[in-house]
Design goal:
- It is globular and about 60 Å long.
- The longest helix has 29 residues.
- By secondary structure, the protein is an all-alpha fold.
- It has a single domain, classed as Farnesyl Diphosphate Synthase.
- α15 packs antiparallel against α16.
- Helices cover about 75% and strands about 0% of the residues.
Length: about 325
């Protein structure tokens, strides 16, 4: 069984050092708050594990891992504002606990602080990491804008949706694992291949997130189950169901997704359509497909087979997660 304890413990220790409320408290308390909520922290763990698998001390990649974690949480604060989400990891979102202005400003500060973590690296390493980080940060913003645009569009294709989640979610996983390889001094082929591994794993991860949003256990998932349905999000589940559902179910979907309501029967009826249309099974198949793509690209990564198996085990655990 894959043991990530050493990475998580090292990360927790460093987070404890970094998370200290300063003045003005109303700027830094929300930052401390969202970081203290924990979460899966798979992105920084991937950075540390990647450096380790390439034969270097994983602590050398700690600053890069922290940059990834700060950026990810910055994006969550702003995403929650845009989605009007009440919960994050089972607790009130930053804008709910404080207010919109505090959420925006504290999120901005997190983005700036993320870049500062790279300052501890030598100039050539700093430049390579910062370039990857800037490229990734802009792509995440582009993905978020695609997501927002989809809300006001009547027609969205599955390929457009996959592009959106690639930018919004998957590229950050790709960058996280590539940063570990960069710090470890891996070859160009290995750096690009492990980036593709992380990116494909990220697509599978987001598809799983979409699935859990509808069908997850609310006690385990940590977010409002059915939140995407209530927000009329055009996820893979919705797009697949729209294409494959019976005509009466398709019309029902269009009516519900053209209505802004928190009615619980909306979630129940849409989930039933997902089931009847074969969408739940199709989504699980897509998750497996992108996980396998991630595994296939590992063949190009220049590390020992035992190390590749650790990454495969990591990917398998993500594919079968319940939260």
């Amino acid at each position: 069984m894959l043991d990530l304890t050493k990475y998580k413990n090292a990360l927790a220790l460093r987070l404890k050092e970094e998370v200290t409320t300063k003045e003005p408290r109303t700027l830094y308390e929300p930052i401390d708050y969202i970081l203290s909520l924990g979460g899966k922290q798979l992105r920084p763990v991937l950075t540390l594990m990647s450096c380790d698998l390439f034969g270097q001390d994983y602590l050398k990649a700690m600053n890069a891992a922290l940059a990834v974690e700060w950026f990810h949480n910055f994006s969550l604060i702003h995403d929650d504002i845009m989605d009007e989400a009440p919960l994050r990891r089972g607790a009130p979102t930053v804008h709910e606990k404080w207010n919109l202005n505090t959420g925006i400003l504290s999120g901005d500060a997190m983005l700036i602080l993320a870049y500062r973590f790279f300052e501890g690296y030598e100039p050539p390493l700093f430049q390579e990491l910062a370039q990857l980080f800037s490229k990734t940060a802009l792509e995440v913003c582009e993905g978020q804008q695609y997501d927002v645009d989809f809300e006001s569009r009547n027609e969205v294709t599955v390929s457009e949706y996959l592009k959106m989640i690639t930018y919004k979610t998957a590229v950050l996983l790709g960058a996280a694992v590539k940063m570990g390889a960069i710090v470890a001094g891996a070859s160009e082929v290995s750096k690009q291949s492990i980036y593709e591994f992380g990116k494909n794993l990220g697509i599978a991860f987001q598809l799983q997130d979409d699935y859990l949003d509808a069908f997850g256990d609310p006690k385990k998932f940590g977010k409002q189950v059915g939140g995407d349905i209530l927000a009329n999000k055009k996820t893979y589940l919705y797009l697949h169901a729209l294409e494959h559902a019976a005509e009466n179910d398709r019309n029902t979907l269009l009516i519900w997704f053209g209505t802004k309501t928190d009615a619980p029967e909306k979630v129940a009826e849409v989930k039933a359509i997902f089931e009847r249309s074969g969408t739940t099974e199709a989504t699980r198949n897509m998750i497996e497909q992108y996980t396998q793509k991630a595994f296939e690209v590992l063949e190009q990564v220049q590390i020992l087979e035992d190390q590749k198996n650790r990454l495969r085990e990591f990917g398998g655990a993500l594919m079968n997660r319940e939260l």
